[in-house]
Amino acid sequence: MPRFLNPPTVPPPLSRYSQAVVLGGAYKRLVVSGQLGVLPDGTVPEGLEAQMVQAFDN
Q1: Which residues pair with 28 in a beta bridge?
Q2: Count of domains in the chain?
Q3: Checking CA distances to 57, which of 2, 10, 19, 48 falls within 20 to 30 Å?
């Protein structure tokens, strides 16, 4: 059974989807959706690596 994740520390999605879904039984898979590398103040870090790190932090 999938487990849908919408943490309170992340802005709510703009549409009807979950921020992330955990799938699987013995082997789990995390699927993320709509994650952007945006800082809490709404700015975007410079550079791809910094944006990717921020997207995973979000």
Answers
A1: none
A2: 1
A3: 2
